[in-house]
């Protein structure tokens, strides 16, 4: 969920009217809503130094960014090079770094802004309590570089990638020499473990990603904000038995590992459960670990199984989102004409609530009106925001990087970023004049901006769980086991939840099938559920009337746009009394 990508370089720009550092952007209206500067000085005015967003809090109110003191003159509040936290609601600025150690970059912080971690200029990883003024080097004497630390929301855990082989002493859990593994630091117990292990708790036979560069491998993992799940890509053959033995060698799968139980889910599966082949990379995970976004290249090219049948560009790259609970899949980089994308990609991120992704691309077919000329020297990559609807459909795709003054599309230097609640989209650009609405010249420096969430239609979104397991419409199956005829088995509890923004209503339960009488369903206690997570439960009991397989279908009638009715297959086996 955090820290989309490391920074990348740009050609020198033209120093422009930005010498007028007193410009204050309080909110300029553009096609996508309000634009706001996030990385300014104490007055939130532009200052002549690179200021790069590193992370956002779940509620979007706190912004972690790196900056340096101005080259000349004085900029209020920017007195040291290093990490700053801006609180948007009060427009306050706090220096949270530590000038006694190498600041570096690739920062991440806790949701309250107190704790942070970063990769130092020495390629070691640091953890800091900015309130108590305590800084720890958490990769001491490491014999290899470490990259891209990601912090849990409470500041306790830090996951990072490293090629070092002396961080932990258990050699049976170390990745091969020259390969990167994902590690997890516990700041309470001050311990470190290897997090990227296989389903048996042993070392991968390769590592995370497919390359030996730790800088690149740093993009090939992510930590859920609750600290419970690690996702990673790997071409290792021993991660999980779910990877078929016929899977093409050197192609990567996406895995989600439960850090408490060690259980591993292979995520590049179709809605039917088949393993799609391809090179899957750059996973990003939602706050509770339920949804994961990742890129897929050459999907279905070698083994013939695509992730989504309607995605035709087998030799291209696309961004997908997988719901690990329901099995739903989204083609996030869906083009307006369902054809092959005409661009390349740089990065992607997913919001904490798992309802939105954002990505950078040179493609021009994600929205119907992406014809504006690029601005300045960097006008190649644009940022797009995709809000997800139910059943694998897209609610809205928005071009984020069109300038508010109509001068054209601005390019992004770093990002994009989404807060946990997806209330805005953020990115960094050097085309600051275009974002400020004062001109179109390039700058030597870049700053971070936010654009508020576009208006979306209010829709209900049904989610159904059997116990704690999410079900998929039409393919979800619940097995009640073997029960003696004429006897009642243990009742199973089902939950209906509405995670949409409009009321889920007209709820009703209907059974069908020759053996529907073998399944008793309790009445619903509510016929409608308000948006935002309201829920209701019902119970189903299996009492077989005859021996052998007994089957029925339970239909949940509702007003969800594309999951009405929501069908669940009920199955059980009758045994002799």
Protein described:
Helices cover 2% and strands 37% of the residues. With 577 residues, it is an all-beta fold. The strands form nine sheets. Strands 1-2-29-28-27 form a five-stranded antiparallel β-sheet. Strands 31-30-33-36-35 form a five-stranded antiparallel β-sheet, with no helix packed on it. The longest helix has 5 residues. The protein is globular and about 85 Å long. The N and C termini lie far apart (53 Å).
| Average of per-residue pLDDT values | 86
Number of strands: 38
What does the main sheet amount to? 5 strands, antiparallel
Strand content: 35-45%
Structural class by secondary-structure content: mainly beta
Distance between the termini: 53 Å
Which residues sit in consecutive blocks of at least 5 with pLDDT less than 50? Answer: 3-32, 375-379
User: Which strand order does the major sheet show?
Assistant: 1-2-29-28-27
Number of helices: 2
What is the rounded Rg?
Answer: 25 Å
């Amino acid at each position: 969920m955090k820290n989309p990508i490391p920074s990348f370089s740009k050609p020198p720009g033209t120093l422009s009217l930005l010498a007028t550092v007193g410009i204050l952007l309080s909110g300029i209206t553009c096609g996508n809503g309000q634009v706001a500067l996030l990385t300014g000085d104490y007055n939130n005015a532009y200052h002549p130094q690179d200021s790069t967003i590193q992370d956002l809090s779940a509620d979007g109110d706190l912004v972690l960014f790196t900056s340096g003191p101005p080259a000349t003159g004085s900029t209020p509040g920017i007195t040291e090079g290093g990490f700053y936290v801006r609180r948007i609601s009060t427009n306050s600025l706090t220096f949270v770094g530590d000038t006694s150690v190498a600041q570096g970059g690739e920062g991440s912080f806790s949701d309250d802004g107190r704790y942070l971690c970063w990769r130092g200029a020495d390629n070691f990883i640091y953890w800091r309590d900015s309130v108590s003024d305590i800084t720890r080097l958490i990769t001491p004497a490491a014999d290899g570089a470490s990259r891209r630390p990601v912090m849990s929301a409470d500041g306790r855990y830090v996951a990072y990638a490293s090629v070092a082989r002396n961080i932990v002493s258990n050699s049976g859990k170390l990745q091969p020499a020259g390969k990167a593994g994902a590690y997890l630091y516990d700041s309470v117990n001050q311990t470190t473990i290897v997090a990227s292990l296989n389903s048996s708790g042993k070392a991968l036979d390769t590592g995370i990603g497919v390359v030996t560069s730790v800088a690149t491998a740093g993009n090939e993992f992510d930590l859920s904000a609750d600290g419970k799940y690690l996702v990673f890509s790997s071409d290792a053959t021993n991660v999980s038995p779910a990877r078929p033995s016929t899977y093409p060698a050197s192609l990567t799968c996406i895995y989600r590992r439960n850090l408490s139980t060690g259980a591993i889910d292979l995520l590049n599966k179709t809605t039917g459960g088949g393993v799609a082949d391809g090179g899957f990379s750059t996973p990003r995970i939602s706050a509770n670990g339920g949804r994961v976004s990742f890129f897929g290249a050459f999907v279905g090219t070698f083994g013939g199984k695509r992730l989504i049948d309607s995605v035709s560009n087998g030799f291209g790259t696309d961004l997908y989102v997988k719901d690990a609970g329901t099995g739903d899949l989204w083609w996030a980089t869906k083009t307006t004409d369902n054809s092959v994308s005409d661009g390349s990609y740089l990065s992607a991120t997913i919001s904490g609530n798992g309802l939105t992704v954002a990505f950078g691309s040179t493609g021009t077919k994600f929205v119907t009106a992406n014809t504006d000329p690029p601005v300045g020297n960097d006008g190649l990559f644009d940022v797009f925001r995709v809000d997800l609807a139910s059943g694998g459909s897209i609610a809205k795709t928005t071009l984020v990087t069109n300038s508010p003054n109509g001068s054209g599309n601005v390019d992004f230097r770093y990002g994009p970023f989404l807060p946990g609640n997806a209330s805005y989209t953020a990115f960094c650009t050097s085309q600051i004049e275009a974002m400020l609405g004062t001109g179109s010249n390039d700058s030597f420096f870049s700053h971070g901006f936010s654009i508020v969430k576009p208006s979306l239609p209010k829709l209900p979104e049904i989610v159904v769980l059997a116990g704690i397991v999410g079900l998929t419409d039409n393919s979800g199956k619940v097995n009640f086991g073997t029960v003696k005829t004429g006897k009642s088995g243990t009742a199973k509890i089902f939950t209906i939840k509405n995670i949409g923004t409009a009321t889920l209503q007209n709820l009703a339960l209907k059974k069908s099938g020759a053996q529907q009488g073998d399944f008793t369903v309790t009445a619903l206690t509510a016929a409608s559920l308000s948006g935002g997570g309201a829920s209701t439960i019902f119970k189903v009991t299996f009492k077989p009337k005859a021996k052998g397989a007994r089957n029925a279908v339970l239909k949940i009638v509702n007003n969800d746009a594309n999951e009405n009715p929501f069908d669940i297959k009920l199955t059980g086996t009758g045994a002799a009394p």
